[in-house]
Amino acid sequence: MIGWLRGVIRAKHPPVLLLDVGGVGYEIEAPMGTFAGLPAVGEQADLFTHLIVREDAHQLFAFAAERERDVFRALLKVNGVGAKVALAILSGMDADAFARCVMEGDTASLTQLPGIGKKTAERVVMEMRDRLESMPAGIGTISPRTGTPAQPRDAISEAVSALVSLGLKPQEAHRRVTALQGDTDLPAEDLVRLALRGMAG
Question: 4-63: which CATH architecture?
Answer without folding.
Answer: Beta Barrel (2.40)
